[in-house]
């Protein structure tokens, strides 16, 4: 079957307007079920998956990342554009800034399902020299330029377990490690996507200064309010890229579904 592009919507992007008559699917995988919608953008079939489930019910550490990624494989997806709400670890990244991720730090410590290669019998170490797809990053930069939409071309994402926000000392530590933004959901999603042979790009929307960088305490309402305000430009960017990229032209990447022993339909 022809490959598809997918959008994974994080906090504030729980739905996505697709053309045609979007169809909701519940996809069964060896790791559980996942829900996704298939519709069209500029004539191309696109898959949309709400990371936190419908109605934003799943906290970051309870998301079934393996089922989500495996479901995308099942639906013939080859490339994924994923959004994340993040706190900034630098004051020059103001709320509303869009950051195109180019590297990550996995600081999750207490999260199940971080790899597809868990069992005995097959040892797979996945190259992660470039954690985000170079091809999708190039396409995102081109579309942002065409839309005259400011997009920070690089950023290192640190994934923290949550669900609490950071302390000021953690924010200072993460910044000293070289991270630019902090969130709770980018890992293991990016890892699993690579293991499964999917091209994956991450666009973060800065919703707040990291803890201690602003005098005020941080609230989820503040994060959601910024997502509401800046969501439309993020959607415009993703829609443009999802429609512009030919998923079948993306080169092979990662160990892939053959190694997973889990065929696409
Ligand atoms: N920390 C972690 N995750 C987040 C933040 C934050 O400051 N803002 C939005 N998601």
What does the model show?
α2 (134-146) crosses α5. Strands 1, 2, 3, 4, 5, 6, 7, 8, 9 and 10 form a 10-stranded mixed sheet that branches. The chain has helices at residues 65-74, 134-146, 168-176, 189-195, 220-244, 257-260; strands at 4-9, 19-29, 32-41, 44-50, 77-88, 98-100, 103-106, 156-159, 181-183, 199-209. It has 265 residues and is an alpha/beta fold. The chain has a single domain (4-258), classed as Nucleoside phosphorylase domain (Rossmann fold), CATH 3.40.50.1580. It has 6 helices and 10 strands. The chain starts with a strand and ends in a 5-residue tail after the last helix. The site of hypoxanthine has 14 residues, from β5, β9 and β10.
Structural class: alpha/beta
**Total E-strand runs:** 10
Give me the CATH superfamily. Nucleoside phosphorylase domain
Give the number of domains: 1
| CATH fold label | Rossmann fold
Percent in helix: 25-40%
Beta-strand content bin: 25-35%
The termini sit apart by 8 Å
Can you tell me the overall shape?
globular
What's the short story on this structure?
The chain has helices at 65-74, 134-146, 168-176, 189-195, 220-244, 257-260; strands at 4-9, 19-29, 32-41, 44-50, 77-88, 98-100, 103-106, 156-159, 181-183, 199-209. With 265 residues, it is of the alpha/beta class. Strands 1, 2, 3, 4, 5, 6, 7, 8, 9 and 10 form a 10-stranded mixed sheet that branches.
């Amino acid at each position: 079957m022809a490959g598809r592009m997918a959008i994974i919507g994080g906090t504030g992007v729980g739905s996505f307007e697709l053309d045609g008559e979007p169809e909701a699917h519940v996809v069964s995988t060896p790791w559980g079920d996942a829900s996704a919608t298939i519709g069209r953008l500029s004539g191309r079939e696109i898959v949309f998956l709400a990371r936190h489930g419908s109605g934003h019910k799943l906290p970051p550490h309870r998301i079934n990342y393996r089922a989500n990624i495996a479901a995308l494989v099942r639906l013939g997806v080859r490339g994924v554009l994923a959004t994340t709400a993040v706190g900034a670890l630098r004051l020059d990244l103001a709320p509303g800034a869009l950051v195109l991720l180019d590297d990550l730090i996995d600081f999750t410590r207490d999260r199940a399902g971080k790899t597809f290669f868990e069992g005995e019998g097959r040892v797979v170490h996945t190259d992660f020299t470039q954690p985000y797809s170079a091809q999708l990053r190039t396409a995102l930069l081109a579309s942002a330029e065409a839309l005259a939409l400011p997009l920070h071309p690089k950023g290192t994402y640190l994934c923290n377990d949550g669900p609490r926000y950071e302390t000021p000392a953690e924010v200072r530590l993460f910044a000293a490690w070289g991270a630019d933004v902090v969130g709770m959901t980018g890992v293991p999603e990016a890892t699993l996507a690579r293991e499964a042979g999917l091209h994956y790009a991450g666009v973060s929307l800065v919703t707040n200064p990291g803890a201690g960088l602003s005098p005020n305490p941080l609230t989820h309402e503040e994060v959601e309010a910024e997502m509401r305000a800046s969501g439309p430009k993020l959607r415009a960017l993703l829609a443009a890229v999802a429609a512009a990229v030919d998923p079948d032209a993306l080169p092979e990447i990662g160990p892939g579904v053959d190694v997973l022993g889990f065929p696409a339909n």
